[in-house]
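Renewal narrative, Specific Aim 1. Our central claim is that a sequence can be written position by position from structural information alone. The example that follows is taken directly from our test logs and has not been curated for this report. It begins with the structure tokens describing the chain, in the order in which they were read.
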């Protein structure tokens, strides 16, 4: 049975598009059940509609965090989503949301966590003077960018880098590893042991 993804985004949706492209090329055995945004004019919503996908806006303004999250969870459960993928979703999820999808929420972050969590991670890396940064796919827990790490990709920081050039090179790696991490989770090729994500034998059915 085809596994169903729910994509949450707040902006342009480039990681959503990369996931959709992997599915279209039969490199990821899944389908996108719904794309949801808390921003009515998010470009990612229009990109989803152009692909013929269900795309919906659920407003968060003025709502308590858990009330908004309950609406999100209801929408995802209605569509029988197997895995929730955050793709530039600019909200911290409530404990209610986390408990509704245990070890079934993924996020991608543009740094080698636990370094440089939060906003402007590329700028943080440049200002700190690191020689290497990258991106991280992790399970989402109740804290910011702190869940168990599934995959990481390393990107060298060049002396000539600006925030824009570094961000572009990191984004190229994000587009590769996010779908790979989704595949590992859907195919039960990993297990979570405390903070450690351990690869196990592949599911013979995939």
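The sequence written for that structure reads:
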């Amino acid at each position: 049975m085809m596994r169903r993804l729910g994509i949450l985004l707040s902006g342009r949706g480039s990681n959503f598009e990369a996931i959709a492209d992997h599915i279209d090329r039969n490199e990821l055995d899944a389908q996108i059940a719904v794309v949801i945004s808390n921003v009515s004019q998010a470009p990612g919503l229009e990109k989803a509609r152009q692909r013929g996908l269900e795309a919906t806006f659920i407003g968060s303004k003025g709502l308590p965090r858990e009330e908004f999250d309950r609406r999100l969870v209801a929408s995802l459960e209605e569509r029988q989503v197997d895995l929730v993928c955050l793709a530039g979703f600019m909200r911290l999820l409530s404990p209610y949301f986390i408990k509704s999808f245990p070890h079934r929420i993924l996020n991608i972050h543009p740094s080698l966590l636990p370094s440089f969590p939060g906003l402007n991670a590329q700028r943080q890396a440049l200002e700190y003077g690191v020689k290497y940064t990258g991106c991280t796919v992790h399970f989402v827990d109740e804290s910011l960018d702190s869940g168990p790490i599934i995959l990481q990709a390393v990107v060298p920081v060049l002396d000539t880098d600006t925030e824009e050039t570094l961000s572009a090179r990191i984004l190229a790696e994000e587009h590769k590893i996010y779908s790979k991490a989704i595949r590992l989770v859907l195919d039960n090729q990993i297990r979570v042991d405390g903070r450690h994500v351990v690869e196990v034998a592949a599911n013979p059915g995939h």
